Amino acid sequence: MKKLNVCLVITATMFLSSCVTTKTYTAEEKKMRNEDEQVSVVKSDGKKVTGSKIDVPSIWNGKSSWIKIDGQKFEGEDINAYQDKKASYTKFGNSKDGWLWVKQLKRGKINLYYYDINTNDQYYDGTKYVNRRNTQTHFVFQKANGRMLEANITEIAEMLKDNREAYQTFTNQFGSADKAVLPKQLQNHPKVLFSAIDIYNG
Fold first, then answer.
1. Over the stretch 133-164, which tens digit does the pLDDT of each residue have?
2. How far is it, in rounded angstroms, from Cα 19 to Cα 164?
3. Model's pTM, two decimal places?
4. When you count CB atoms within 10 A of the terminal residue's CB, does the N or C end of the chain come out lower?
């Protein structure tokens, strides 16, 4: 597995690339919230602080990040997770190197999270150069109580291998050959990935 280099030179934002994908992700995100709590943070010592109002900076960047619950400020380095009124987030990375806040999509034997990276480039349409925005969705996996890691196709298949139905559901779409991390391939078929993990989690 390849551990994500989380030195945050990138800006991770949470915009989704299509209406269909947005609906798919939003439904999964809502399932991960604790409906008994409006907003909350989980501190590094395990203590949870709940409230009714949350304030989050528009950009989370390493040690400068923070979050407020009902006006009480918590530094990002002292938080492991938080929940707003739409989704549940977990820290991916560490305080020394910087981190990303990834949205949770699945919880169980395998936890699944994601983050998006938006980039801008240009293409020539025959008459002029046109700006284009691209979004890549990256998935983060955690099996049992193991480390949170990005995984390639082979490694995801290996995670699912001890559940035949889940393994076949995944490999029928993506295969199991030795492939590098392919954000586009996974993000184009999220329902297949979600289904395989649901089967595995039982």
1. 888 888 999 999 899 999 888 899 999 999 99
2. 32
3. 0.79
4. C
